[in-house]
Amino acid sequence: MVYILQICSVLALASIAIGAPNEKRAPTVYLAGDSTMAENGGGSGTQGWGHYLQYSLSAPVSNKAVAGRSARSYTVENRFQTLIDTVKSSDIVIIEFGHNDGGSLSSSDNGRTDCPGAGDETCKSTYNGQAVTVLTFPKYLVNAGQALVAKGAKVIFSSQTPNNPWEGGSFSYGPSRFTTYAQSAAKQVGANAMFVDHGQYTANIFKTLGKSKVDSFFPNDHTHTSPAGADTISRAFVKAVLCADGGVLSGLVKNSTASVEGACI
Ligand SMILES: *[C@@H]1O[C@H](CO)[C@@H](O)[C@H](O)[C@H]1NC(C)=O
């Protein structure tokens, strides 16, 4: 009996030793963002689009988006650091911020507003009675992206979802500056990063769907969507990725490009 147990444990150790180096592990897709992406992020009757991504991917999705966060507060609360510590080689992290990153630091600091600018600029500010140094939106993204890539992960910088583009009566969508910043962050992080213009893909689908349908996606305000709206926004993301031949999600999307609504841009 003891002898058999010993053989078993030797075999178990051997298989761990043999299995470990070349082991093909299934990647996990992590999501970092705000309420528009988070599980039940926008309050009652709403859903974040991150919830629906699991249905289009063959990899597990771990939604770490948190309502109310900006690139800055997600950084300061060590949420990016937790992801950096968690990811393993070939995991993918989708980063989408912007809704909470605007505003001004000059009158009062809400802990979320970034320093204006596209590069290494810094702002001195006071938050919660503490003197703080605030970085620019792209700087927070690039810092996180480079650290994630250094761990062997791949990163998608995604532009923020549109507020209801039909709220003024006729359709109107213009990308925010955070779209350009997300694009430039992807360039700076390099080959293991890509940019997805999620905002534009979503806006194009919203234009086709028309005012009454899209208005129904925004039950409470012009930012947070119903479950049906979030599903549409998730599918817009998948379409954008498929139109880039899968990019860093290559081989992980279940759906064919033609089967997903919307048009490649
Ligand atoms: C992909 O197909 C699944 C069903 O297999 C569906 O639930 C999902 O919404 C589809 N995704 C897109 C982007 O159309």
TrEMBL record:
Descriptive protein name:
SGNH hydrolase-type esterase domain-containing protein
> What Gene Ontology molecular-function terms does this entry list?
hydrolase activity, acting on ester bonds
> According to its UniProt record, which protein family does this protein belong to?
Belongs to the 'GDSL' lipolytic enzyme family.
Superkingdom field: Eukaryota
The record, for InterPro entries, names: GDSL, RhgT-like, SGNH_hydro_sf
| Keyword terms of this UniProt record | Hydrolase, Signal
Q: Which organism is it from?
A: Clohesyomyces aquaticus
Q: Which Gene3D superfamilies does this UniProt record tie to the protein?
A: SGNH hydrolase
UniProt cross-references to PANTHER family, sorted A to Z: PUTATIVE (AFU_ORTHOLOGUE AFUA_2G17250)-RELATED, RHAMNOGALACTURONAN ACETYLESTERASE
- The signal peptide, as residue positions, is 1-19
